[in-house]
Write a structure and sequence with these properties.
By secondary structure, the protein is α/β, with parallel strands linked by helices. It has 9 helices and 14 strands.
């Protein structure tokens, strides 16, 4: 968990320092006060682009000196930090205990999962968003997943450039790139399938309650010999301008169990309940498998639940680690009990 969070020139926060406790961290304030910005800052302390997937230059405070910083102390007095310098606003800097490290190394220290209003369209949007969602779930259980994904995408881009060249491609180089795609692609596929299977088991055993039960499936199987399939499809891929097979074409299938209906055909409220049940089950799975509870970021989730479901959510989250929640009204969180709750009203004092 985070025991200290410091923001410098991040979004609308010129300077801010929070000392969160071990349980619920409740941020309240009017729209535009910067609640989601704080959650985004926390999400940057894990591998990836954060919960908004924004460019680094967009995160620096407007009219500020340029660049920004997000620093935190986590359990065990480990200092982690990330940000961008004014001289290189699109180059991410990551440090652990003062030493520069790759962003993927953050996963060794902190696991962060989140649910935001922007994710409400997860089942209505294209497969790319669901793949990104699944990959975040997978990364929490398989820390090496990000490395495989990065290397797979790099090899895939290089192969596409070769196939698009007017000159005859170097066959040996193409074969080497396809071999790289196969190695990392199969690792991606295996990690995703393991995550879907483990999460499916957790969802099946979840206690009956006010949240919809979901069943998961990884759709779009990768051929057993991916390198051979890529080699056989070179002409087709050259015409399409991209690889038409591989883990980058996968999709996450979600079904509402009680209604035996795909999530995409469920109501907006049902889709929200399905998504929430997946995120809750995943957090519990990570805590059991990794031996540490993930930091959970739930943006405006309480506002979309009736009092019964809201109370059930708080009861299920109690004692599950550090949970950051936002809302416009403190009354939304009155059902939370316990001395371990940190309550912060925004805007923060300078």
């Amino acid at each position: 968990m985070l025991t200290r969070l410091v923001l410098t020139d991040f979004r609308n926060h010129a300077s801010a320092c929070l000392m969160p406790g071990a349980g619920f961290v409740v941020l309240t304030g009017e729209n535009g006060a910067g609640k989601t910005n704080i959650l985004e800052a926390v999400s940057l302390l894990a591998p990836g682009k954060g919960l908004r997937r924004a460019a680094l230059g967009e995160m620096a405070r407007q009219d500020g000196p340029g660049g920004f910083g997000v620093a935190a102390t986590i359990s065990g007095d480990v200092a982690i930090a990330t940000g961008a310098l004014a001289a290189a606003p699109e180059r991410r800097v990551v440090r652990v205990q003062g030493a520069s490290v790759a962003a993927t190394a953050l996963g060794d220290w902190l696991t962060v999962v989140w649910l935001t209003p922007a994710m409400d369209r997860l089942f209505a949007d294209g497969a790319a968003e669901r793949r990104r969602f699944l990959d975040r779930l997978t990364l929490a259980l398989h820390p090496g997943h990000a490395v495989h994904a990065t290397r797979y995408e790099a090899a895939m881009r290089a192969r596409s450039r070769l196939l698009a060249d007017d000159r005859p491609p170097d066959i040996d180089w193409l074969a080497a790139l396809e071999a790289q795609m196969a190695t990392h692609g199969m690792a991606i596929e295996a990690a995703r399938r393991d995550t879907v299977a483990l999460l499916g088991e957790r969802l099946a055993l979840a206690p009956h309650g006010p949240f919809a039960r979901a069943a998961l499936a990884l759709e779009g199987a990768v051929p057993g010999d991916l390198a051979a399939a890529l080699a056989a499809g070179r002409r087709r891929d050259a015409g399409a301008g991209r690889a038409l097979i591989g883990p980058h074409r996968a999709d996450l299938g979600v079904t509402h169990v009680a209604r035996n209906q795909p999530a995409a055909r469920c109501s907006t409220g049902e889709q929200k309940a399905l998504l929430l049940s997946i995120v809750l089950a995943h957090a519990e799975l990570v805590a059991d498998r990794a031996g540490r509870a993930p930091v959970m970021l739930l943006d405006e989730v309480a506002a979309h639940l009736d009092p019964v479901r809201r109370g059930a959510l708080f009861d299920r989250l109690a004692g599950r680690g550090q949970v950051w929640m936002t809302g416009t009204e403190p009354a939304l969180f009155e059902a939370i009990r316990g001395a371990g709750t940190t309550r912060v009203s925004l805007p923060l004092a300078p």
